[in-house]
C-alpha cells in the first residue's frame, strides 16, 4: 500500500500476528489500566502452536528478506516509520491506557519510534577489507535468521522498535513477544507492519512468561534479544545455551549519580530529581543512588526536596502531571516494600513520607531517603519506583568506589561545571552508558548495554547492528 494513504486500524481489537495474518486464540487475557485499575481489552494468548507457526513462517521468509538489497529493506523501514506516524495519536492514546504514562511522555515514546527507525536507516552495515601480496580478506556480516524479541512493560513500544529496526535492517526476521502487562501497543505495531513487510518478516505472539521461555528453547530461533530483569535474564541465558543461541541481555541497573561541589545547585537539583523519578522511576537507567559532595549536601538536597514537592502525580489525561502510576499491581507491591523497609529501619524521608498504603490506583508520591546506610535495601537493590536515596561524599576515589560497588553496571551520571573533570570521573564508572551533565537519556545513536549483571552485549547504534549478525570472512588468495 502507499504510505501516503492513511490506513484504517482498529485500536480496540487485538491479535497475534502470524505469517502476515491476524490470529486470535481460545485463551484470552487482558491488561489493566494502572490509572483506573480497570480491565482493558481482551488479548489472545498465543499457544505453542502459534509460536511454532510463527517461527516456521519467519524461517520461510528469511532467505528472500536476507537477499533483499539493504537499500530496499531501508526503504520499507522508512515507509513503516511514515505509516506509524500517521497513527501517532491512536498509539499515544493506547500507550497511555496500557502504561498510565502522562500523555506528553507517552507522546515522546511514540515520537521516538520514527526517530529510532530513521537513525538505523542512516547506518551502513559494517564491513572491512584487508589486503597483502598473498590475499584479500573480506570481513562481512550476515544476518542470523529468525530472532526472538522479548519485551518488558516499562517502554513497551520503543523497546519493541529497538529490536525490530536493527533486526530487519540487517536482514533477519523477528518474532516479538510483548509483556503480558502491556501487550497492546506492541501487537498493534506489528499488525500495522503487515501493510509494509512481506509475511513472516515481523510477527508478534502475545503471552505470559511461559511463552517467553518457549522462545528461548525453540531450535529454529537463532537469537534472543531480551530486555527485562536480571533474574529473568539469567534464565534466558541458561535456556538459550541449550541451542547455543546468540543472546543480547538488556537488564536492570542501580545507577549512581555523582554531584561535584561546583554545580549550579538550583539548576542541577531538579534535573537530578527527574533522572530518578522519570516514568515514576520505572526506567532501567533511572538514577537510583545520588552521591552529593558534602560541602553542598544540605543545600542540594533541599533543592531536590523543593522540586519533588511540586511534582504532580496522576492520570495520563491531566496534562499537568509529571508522573503517572506504577504500571502494575505486582510492581506496586514491590515498590511499597521499599517504602515499608525504609520506614521500619527509621531512615529519614527527606521529601515527606507518602502514605502509599491508602492511595487509590497504583499511584505513589515520589520521595527521597536522606543518607541511609550502605547496606540498606534502598541503596543495594533496584526499587524500580519513585523512591531514591542520597548520601554525602568527600573523597573522589572513595565515591567512585562506592558508585562501582554493585553487581550492576547499566548507567551512571556525573554532574559538574568542569566538564573535563566530570568526564574523567565518568570514564572510571563501571557502567555501559555514563552521562555527563544530563540524566540518563539513551539514544539510538550509540550501543546500549550493561556491564556486570546488567547484561550481555548491547544493541542500537552502528556497533549494535553486529548483535544481529554473524561475522562471515571470505579469504581470497591470489593465484
Ligand atoms: P521481566 O524480566 O519480569 O519480564 C520481561 C519479559 O520477559 C516479559 O515479556 C516476560 O513475559 C518475559 N519472561 C518472563 N520469564 C521469562 C522466561 N523464563 N523466559 C523468557 N521470557 C520470560 O521484567 P519486567 O518486570 O517486565 O521489566 C522490568 C525490568 O526490566 C527491570 O529490572 C528493568 O531494569 C529491566 N529493564 C532493562 C532495560 C535495559 O535496556 N537494560 C530496559 C527496560 C527494563
UniProtKB/TrEMBL annotation:
<dbReference type="InterPro" id="IPR016160">
    <property type="entry name" value="Ald_DH_CS_CYS"/>
</dbReference>
<dbReference type="InterPro" id="IPR016161">
    <property type="entry name" value="Ald_DH/histidinol_DH"/>
</dbReference>
<protein>
    <recommendedName>
        <fullName>aldehyde dehydrogenase (NAD(+))</fullName>
        <ecNumber>1.2.1.3</ecNumber>
    </recommendedName>
</protein>
<dbReference type="InterPro" id="IPR016163">
    <property type="entry name" value="Ald_DH_C"/>
</dbReference>
<dbReference type="InterPro" id="IPR029510">
    <property type="entry name" value="Ald_DH_CS_GLU"/>
</dbReference>
<keyword id="KW-0560">Oxidoreductase</keyword>
<comment type="similarity">
    <text>Belongs to the aldehyde dehydrogenase family.</text>
</comment>
<dbReference type="GO" id="GO:0004029">
    <property type="term" value="F:aldehyde dehydrogenase (NAD+) activity"/>
</dbReference>
<dbReference type="InterPro" id="IPR015590">
    <property type="entry name" value="Aldehyde_DH_dom"/>
</dbReference>
<dbReference type="InterPro" id="IPR016162">
    <property type="entry name" value="Ald_DH_N"/>
</dbReference>
<feature type="domain" description="Aldehyde dehydrogenase">
    <location>
        <begin position="29"/>
        <end position="472"/>
    </location>
</feature>
<dbReference type="InterPro" id="IPR044086">
    <property type="entry name" value="LUC3-like"/>
</dbReference>
<feature type="active site">
    <location>
        <position position="250"/>
    </location>
</feature>
<dbReference type="Pfam" id="PF00171">
    <property type="entry name" value="Aldedh"/>
</dbReference>
Amino acid at each position: 500500500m502507499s504510505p501516503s494513504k492513511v490506513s484504517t486500524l482498529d485500536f480496540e481489537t487485538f491479535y497475534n500476528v502470524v505469517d502476515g495474518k491476524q490470529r486470535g486464540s481460545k485463551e484470552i487475557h487482558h491488561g489493566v489500566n494502572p490509572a483506573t485499575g480497570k480491565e482493558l481489552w481482551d488479548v489472545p494468548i498465543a499457544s505453542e502452536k502459534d509460536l511454532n507457526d510463527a517461527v516456521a513462517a519467519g524461517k520461510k521468509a528469511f532467505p528472500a528478506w536476507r537477499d533483499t538489497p539493504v537499500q530496499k529493506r531501508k526503504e520499507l523501514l522508512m515507509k513503516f516509520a511514515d505509516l506509524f506516524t500517521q497513527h501517532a495519536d491512536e498509539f499515544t492514546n493506547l500507550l497511555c491506557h496500557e502504561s498510565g504514562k502522562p500523555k506528553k511522555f507517552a507522546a515522546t515514546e511514540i515520537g521516538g519510534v520514527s526517530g529510532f527507525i530513521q537513525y538505523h536507516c542512516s547506518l551502513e552495515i559494517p564491513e572491512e577489507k584487508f589486503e597483502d601480496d598473498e590475499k584479500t580478506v573480506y570481513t562481512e556480516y550476515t544476518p542470523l535468521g529468525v530472532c526472538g524479541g522479548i519485551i518488558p512493560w516499562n517502554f513497551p513500544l520503543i523497546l519493541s522498535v529497538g529490536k525490530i529496526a536493527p533486526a530487519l535492517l540487517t536482514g533477519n526476521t523477528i518474532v516479538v513477544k510483548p509483556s503480558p502487562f502491556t501487550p497492546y501497543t506492541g501487537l498493534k505495531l506489528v499488525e500495522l507492519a503487515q501493510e509494509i513487510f512481506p509475511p513472516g518478516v515481523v510477527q508478534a505472539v502475545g503471552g505470559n512468561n511461559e511463552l517467553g521461555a518457549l522462545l528461548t528453547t525453540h531450535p529454529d530461533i537463532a537469537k534472543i534479544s531480551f530486555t527485562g530483569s536480571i533474574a529473568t535474564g539469567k534464565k534466558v541465558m541458561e535456556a538459550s545455551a541449550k541451542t547455543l543461541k546468540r543472546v543480547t541481555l538488556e537488564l536492570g541497573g542501580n545507577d549512581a549519580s555523582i554531584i561535584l561541589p561546583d554545580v549550579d545547585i538550583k539548576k542541577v537539583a531538579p534535573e537530578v530529581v527527574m533522572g530518578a523519578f522519570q516514568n515514576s522511576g520505572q526506567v532501567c537507567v533511572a538514577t537510583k543512588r545520588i552521591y552529593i559532595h558534602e560541602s553542598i549536601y544540605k543545600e542540594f538536597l533541599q533543592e531536590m526536596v523543593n522540586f519533588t514537592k511540586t511534582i504532580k502525580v496522576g492520570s495520563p489525561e491531566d496534562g499537568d502531571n509529571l508522573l503517572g502510576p506504577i504500571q502494575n499491581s505486582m510492581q506496586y507491591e514491590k515498590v511499597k516494600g521499599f517504602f515499608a523497609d525504609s520506614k521500619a529501619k527509621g531512615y529519614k524521608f527527606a521529601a515527606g513520607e507518602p502514605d502509599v498504603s491508602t492511595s487509590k490506583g497504583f499511584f505513589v508520591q515520589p520521595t527521597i531517603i536522606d543518607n541511609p546506610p550502605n547496606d540498606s535495601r534502598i541503596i543495594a537493590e533496584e526499587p524500580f519506583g519513585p523512591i531514591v536515596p542520597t548520601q554525602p561524599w568527600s573523597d573522589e576515589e572513595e565515591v567512585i568506589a562506592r558508585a562501582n560497588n554493585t553487581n550492576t553496571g547499566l548507567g551512571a551520571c556525573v554532574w559538574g561545571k568542569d566538564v573535563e573533570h566530570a568526564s574523567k570521573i565518568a570514564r572510571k564508572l563501571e557502567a555501559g552508558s555514563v552521562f555527563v551533565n544530563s540524566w540518563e537519556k539513551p539514544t539510538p545513536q550509540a550501543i546500549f548495554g550493561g556491564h556486570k549483571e546488567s547484561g550481555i552485549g548491547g544493541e542500537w547504534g552502528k556497533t549494535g547492528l553486529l548483535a544481529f549478525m554473524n561475522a562471515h570472512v571470505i579469504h581470497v588468495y591470489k593465484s
